[in-house]
Predict the 3D structure of the following.
Amino acid sequence: MTNYIDPKPLHCSMEFIREIAEILIRSTKFKVGGNIEKDIINKLGGIVHHPDTAGWDAKFAETDSLYVDGVRDFKIFLKDKLYDLRNRFTLAHELGHFILHSKSGQIKIHARRYGTSQIEKEANRFAAELLMPKNELEELFNQDKSVCELADIFDVSIVAMNVRIDSLRL
Ligand SMILES: [Zn+2]
């Protein structure tokens, strides 16, 4: 079995993380409200395991986690089978660890759900930039959409949308 490295924080600016997320959105042609698993993770060679899939193994899935074995070779284990909004955010978050902390597969990492706060912060920021891109959100916000409508359009929880609106100071 591979010896995995614990991910290290990048300590980069939030603008840098935004740029990385925007590059990924452009290169995968990901649309607002799109399917993270099929539209991005699978295209990058990643596989999502959850209690309904064949490769799911309870010992890997005590918590949501990410194993990176190489470029185009990574697995995300979800502990819950339901594809709810929380799982959607979790997928975007684990994808953030893959892109940022494994350098898209160059470093073999194992990211657990509760790592050090800085790497979690970076992965959360990446997830927010991916699921709720600044320009699209600002445009719709300025059209007087409500938080509920915005959460619906971007397919995120109302809590996540509120946090995002606050952090963009809209
Ligand atoms: Zn994490």
In short: The first helix runs from residue 14 to 28.
